Amino acid sequence: MKQPLRKDLEPVAASFIVKELVEPHFDPNWHFHPHYQLFLVEKGTGTRFIGDSIKPFGPGDLVFLGPNLPHLWRSDQVYFDRQPDSNPAELITRGIVVYFTEDFLGPDFFEKQEMTPLRQLLNQSRQGLEWMGPTRGQAEKALKNLSKQPVGFQRVISLLTLLNDLTLATDFRYLTSPGYTNTVKPAETDRMQLVHDYVLGHFPDDLSLDTVADLAGMTSPAFCRYFKARANKTFSEFVSEVRIGHACKLLMNGKLNITQISFESGFRTLSNFNRQFKDITGQTPSGYVKTYRRL
């Protein structure tokens, strides 16, 4: 896999970019770019990786990212393993994404006194933000309207209005840990991509550290130091979060009991699953389901 980790967008004449994404699956590559990104998932499920945050995603997922924050919306494997007789309309991903740069309205626009709340929102987005509750529904309507507007003055006003509405909302949370910084270099693409792909493809199994280190072309101790420096967490913590993220999706789906979900997510004992679930989410599996159903 020879994809650049730093992603450069095609230049356009307009001040910012709005895209409606309709694809078999979302971009499977771990990447970052110098643009702010506001992204709404309309259809599709999977696991969202942002900096050192790992969460399941589904329709309605609304996230705002600052520049150069590594991210990946990894669609569930079913979107890649399509059967010849499957209905394409059933397995499709849809989303609306907005990209803009710090100076998309001029080098000093957000430095003006009136722009203080927006400037604060932009600074907060460097940790990654997601909105829940009523704000998510309101923003979804605004983004759908924005995606249908032609390039022009009104579209700029619509974006600024949406960003201003987000500054007033309180039902948000940060995604990355406070001390997270992007230490990944573009030249390291292959190594990190291999690790992500291997873990996402094998997390239900007994993962071997030696195997993953060998894939990365390193000894196990060297790989552990390398991964901790880049991901802001240990490799075992990363694997646990991937497994718990998958368990969260299965819990939301509601088709399996907790013991089955534990096994399907790669845990060999229910007690270990319950402990790690509480450590990572702050809730028990049953408590998580109750919280999800209230949203």
TrEMBL record:
Pfam families xrefs: Cupin_2, HTH_18
Gene3D superfamilies (UniProt xref): Homeodomain-like, Jelly Rolls
Coiled-coil stretches: none
Classification via CDD domains: cupin_MtlR-like_N
Key words of the record: DNA-binding, Transcription, Transcription regulation
Natural source organism: Spirosoma linguale (strain ATCC 33905 / DSM 74 / LMG 10896 / Claus 1)
Designated name of the protein: Transcriptional regulator, AraC family
Phylogenetic classification of the source organism: Bacteria, Pseudomonadati, Bacteroidota, Cytophagia, Cytophagales
Ranges for domain HTH araC/xylS-type: 193-291
Listed InterPro entries: Cupin_2, Homeodomain-like_sf, HTH_AraC, HTH_AraC-typ_CS, RmlC-like_jellyroll, RmlC_Cupin_sf
GO molecular function, one term: sequence-specific DNA binding
